[in-house]
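Box S1 | Example of a co-folding query
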Amino acid sequence: MHASTWEGLRWKHVRHPTDARIAKQGCLQVGYNICMRYYGNVIRPPSEARSYILQVTYGCSHNRCTFCGTYLDKPFRVRPVNEVFEDIAMAREEIPDLRRVFLADGDALVLSTQKLVAILDALNANFPKLERVGIYANARDLLRKSEQDLALLRSKGLGIVYIGLESGSDEVLLHVKKGVSATEMVQAVQRAKTAGIASSVIALLGIAGPEGSAEHAQATGKIVSRMDPEYLALLTLMLVPGTELYHQYSEGTFELMDAYAMLHELRLVLQNLEGLTHCVFRTNHASNYLPLAGTLPQDKERLISAIDGALQEGPAVFRPESWRRL
Ligand code: SF4
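Box S1 (continued) | Returned holo structure for iron/sulfur cluster
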């Protein structure tokens, strides 16, 4: 551990695999690591596992979702840009061939376009082989930016935004305090699409409990259909101590669904996905009971059959409860 020079925050130096270093070593099996300074736990989408994680904000500017404990102990702050530039300089020493960067933390797109442009310019100046920069975004972050702002960010390498839809049901979104409506989520994805930025949408199985499950699944399928995103990932709810939802569960006002019910819900989401152009679909997150991968629309029936097969076979083919992770 090394102390940060900024306001007493402590960051840790973590070793992290990256595409660039692996490619450089010519070995795809062994993960080589680079050093990153990171404050708090490293949070990034599974598909950014080999990206360099560059922390440009701390925490999440919203930080109110009832199910989310990710940043409960990390108040939102904008990281001083000089520290971000220092990290970029350090990374350049170790991985000059870097190809992918992920900007953390929770909704880093909340940064002003001016700051993001400065960071993207520094990345492009230091990493000539840079191919893509990814970022977590709130729908409101996207809608706050003009089409011109997003087009500018796209021209500087911002290639993908990860958006937590959670549910297509406004009732569920309100209940979990997401802070945005399903329609705003659709508008946000459309705005990214207009700018040429790909969207990876994340929804959450089990978030409506057993009573709301069918409505949640149908609404989620329908809203994702309107979004027509490039990527869709489904995660499965896990209760996190300290969150409001955990408290509701302890009080008996929220009920958790079992693996069977989660898979029925997943099936219903898939059934309601219509008219997608080309969507990479994954349930490979460690929270899920059944890892699935395919491309929609062409793999829809195969994926539904795989769920039916798993439901018939039962727990022997489900990820064991003790293996599930956030
Ligand atoms: S789910 Fe996303 S928006 Fe909600 S509090 Fe967690 S990081 Fe923030």
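The first strand starts at residue 2 and ends at 3. Residues 60, 62-65, 68, 70-71, 106-107, 138, 164 surround iron/sulfur cluster (CB under 6 Å).
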